[in-house]
From TrEMBL:
Any Pfam family the entry gives: HTH_17
Cited InterPro entries: HTH_17
Designated name of the protein: Helix-turn-helix domain-containing protein
Residues annotated as domain Helix-turn-helix: 5-56
Species whose genome carries this gene: Luteimicrobium xylanilyticum
Length: 73
């Protein structure tokens, strides 16, 4: 059975980003997450991560259609 929640390390791996970037996404609210346990470890629901990814695809498509995509990346 697949896990419902992912750690920030899992998010880092899926998105191929650094820990600072993953934490910034959560802190900013761009990627909704919850804190669990006594030490407040962050968890992201797998479906929420997938929704975030789909939203990023949609935003990218909109920027391409508008001709405002930054091609430096």
């Amino acid at each position: 059975m697949a896990s419902r929640f992912l750690t920030l390390a899992d998010v880092m791996e899926v998105l191929n980003i650094s820990s600072a970037q993953a934490y910034a996404l959560v802190r900013s609210g761009d990627l909704p997450a919850i804190q669990v346990g006594g030490r407040g470890q962050w968890r992201v629901e797998a479906t929420v991560l997938e929704e975030y990814i789909q939203h990023q695809y949609a935003q990218t498509r909109a920027r391409i259609d508008a001709g405002t995509l930054d091609e430096r990346a």
